[in-house]
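Run log, item B.
One chain of 152 residues. Sequence copied directly from the ordering sheet:
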Amino acid sequence: MSKKIVLALIITALALFSGAILVQAQTGNDQAASTTIKHVPIATTSPVSGKDMFTAYCAVCHGPDGKGAGPAASALKTPPTDLTVLSKNNGGKFPSMKVSSTIRGEGGFPAHGNKEMPVWGALFWNLSGGHESEVQQRVANLTKYVESLQTK
């Protein structure tokens, strides 16, 4: 599959999830969010703010608190991961390499990269105009933000 086709599929998936938030906000109906999804363009955020990226790209599924209860969660076949217990589930150590790899779409994690979960590495590459250093900055800052969400 060509990179252009893969990128188009990723952008479409992101648009679907963003659309679910809009539907929920406009209708206030949980069932509408799981059955009606509108396409919206990907939002550009600053690569320096992990929190802003999380809010724009992750909260739609994982929720603003990272616990997996975002407005689009009910529309998914696989429930979003509770990102606040990653350290707890990893012997008290935050799995930063696994989280970074998951964000980039590497490592074959089933929730990321399927029809329901965009591969953020490719989307970040597109947002940055092909600047790998910006992609790395986005992934690092988003990973650090997810680490800050860990329960104590």
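Observations after the first pass:
- The chain has six helices and no strands.
- Helices lie at 3-27, 30-35, 50-62, 96-104, 120-127, 132-148.
Flagged for discussion on Thursday.
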